[in-house]
Amino acid sequence: METTNNKNLATFTHLSTLSQYCIPFGNYIFPLLIWSTNRDKSEFIDYNGKQALNFQLSIFLYSLVLAMIAIPIILITIFNNVPLETVINDGDFMENHLSVENITGIVIVAIIAILLFVGMKVAEFFLIIYASVKTSNGEKYNYPLTIPFLK
């Protein structure tokens, strides 16, 4: 049976990841601080700290993969039919060389990338809240699709 203090610390570890909306990299800094200073006090705090950090690292990795796929596709679509000489010498190549057919691919790729990223961030927000509620009740929560970087 976990003490109320341990449950609260584990819950704050999950909730501290929401600081990313106010402080850059707060979703890594604050859970790491809470976890590293309290992991020796309780196995419950240690477990939840690892879960919160693994989830944040997984979300970061998924975002990088999404960007690595989407950005080159968008750039290739933009520059597909534009000669290099036009890009270098002509300042208004976008107006002259982008047609509706080419823009359709750009729009589709951009919309899919944006929807995937927004969906991922919305799911992240609700999963953090759900994990916090489960943790405050003394239950161990495993985030879905999380890569175990810290074991």
Keywords:
mainly alpha, 6 helices, about 75% helix
Rg, Å, rounded: 22 Å
What about the largest sheet? Answer: none
What is the subunit organization of this protein? single chain
β-sheet strand percentage:
under 5%
Question: What form results from the Cα inertia axes?
Answer: elongated
Distance between the termini: 22 Å
Tell me the number of strands: 0
> Structural class of the helices, strands and pairings?
mainly alpha
Average per-residue pLDDT, rounded, comes to 86
The topology string of helices and strands comes to HHHHHH
Counting H and I runs of at least 4 residues, what is the number of helices? 6
Q: Your description of this structure?
A:
The chain has one domain (4-136). It has 6 helices and no strands. It has helices at 4-15, 26-38, 43-79, 84-89, 93-97, 100-136. Helix 1 (4-15) packs antiparallel against helix 2, helix 1 runs antiparallel to helix 6 (100-136) and helix 2 packs antiparallel against helix 3 (43-79). It is elongated. The model has no long low-confidence stretch (mean pLDDT 86).
